[in-house]
Write a structure and sequence with these properties.
The chain is mostly helical and 127 residues long. The chain has one domain. It has six helices and no strands. The protein is globular, with a radius of gyration of 18 Å. Helix content is 76%, strand content 0%. Helix 2 packs across helix 3.
């Protein structure tokens, strides 16, 4: 939806048409960032399950945002999974990200999926 809205808004305000290369580069960047963000939100499902509502994941989200800002300013954003999508969108950010950055995002997503699954499967079950 963001992609479509951006294209429509750009056409509405009269931006120049640009090249196919710019279009495909932007499309690829948006697709990668969307996948990175999807992977980093899985742990919040675990916190929602543990907290049995939305307050705990909202609090953890705010904490992650604050820590992410400090970590990125300190230069360690490459190793903080929730900062990786934002760093990827920077023009020179892709060169600063390492394979470990993407691996940490993947491991964070898998940990969130596993934690949520195990919570649903094993915790507080009366049967």
């Amino acid at each position: 939806m963001l992609f479509l809205a951006s294209l429509l808004l750009g056409a509405a305000i009269g931006l120049s048409q640009g090249t196919a290369e710019v279009f495909w580069h932007g499309t690829a960047t948006l697709a990668v960032v969307a996948c990175l963000v999807i992977a980093t939100v899985f742990p919040f499902a675990f916190f929602a399950s543990v907290g049995r509502g939305y307050l705990l994941p909202m609090g953890v989200t705010l904490l992650v945002i604050v820590i992410g800002n400090f970590v990125a300013v300190a230069g360690w954003g490459n190793y903080f999974p929730w900062a990786v999508p934002a760093l990827y969108t920077e023009p020179n950010g892709k060169g600063n990200l390492e394979a470990a950055s993407y691996l940490l995002v993947l491991l964070t997503g898998l940990a969130g999926l596993a934690g949520t699954y195990l919570w649903w499967r094993c915790a507080d079950q009366s049967r």
